[in-house]
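Long-time lurker, first post. I've been practising inverse folding by hand and with some scripts of my own, and I keep getting stuck on stretches where the structure tokens seem ambiguous. Below is the full token string for one chain I'm working on. Before anyone asks, I'm not after the true native sequence, just a reasonable design that respects the backbone. If someone could post their per-position residues I'd love to compare against what I wrote down in my notebook.
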């Protein structure tokens, strides 16, 4: 994964982190729920999202369950789906912001 550039005057945003991570991948690339979990965990680590005093990380099975319930891509229920960079960005930003605001 590429190094995430930070500007000391501006706070690090979830959007900037996921865009930086996804910049390593071709535009037409699709991602399995397993890879989405990997990308999500990278963002959670960079953003230092804590749960019960420990770094919060998700298991890949959680994303397969989300995909099967239509929570990975709104309204699409398929645990074997492949998602686009845009869909990954939407999901990761929403998920991380919810975790930060808890």
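-- Answer (accepted) --
I ran through it position by position. Result:
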């Amino acid at each position: 994964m590429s190094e995430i550039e930070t500007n000391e005057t501006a706070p690090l945003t979830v959007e900037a982190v996921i865009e930086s991570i996804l910049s390593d991948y071709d535009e037409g690339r699709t991602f399995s729920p397993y890879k989405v979990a990997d990308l999500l965990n990278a963002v959670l680590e960079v953003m230092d999202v804590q749960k019960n005093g420990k770094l919060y990380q998700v298991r890949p099975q959680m994303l397969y369950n989300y995909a099967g319930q239509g929570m990975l891509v709104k309204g699409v229920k398929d645990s074997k789906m492949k998602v686009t960079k845009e869909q990954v960005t939407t999901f990761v930003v929403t998920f991380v912001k919810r975790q930060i605001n808890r």
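A couple of notes from the structure itself: The CA atoms of residues 44 and 102 lie 14 Å apart. The beta strands are 50-51, 54-55. Happy to go over any region you disagree with.
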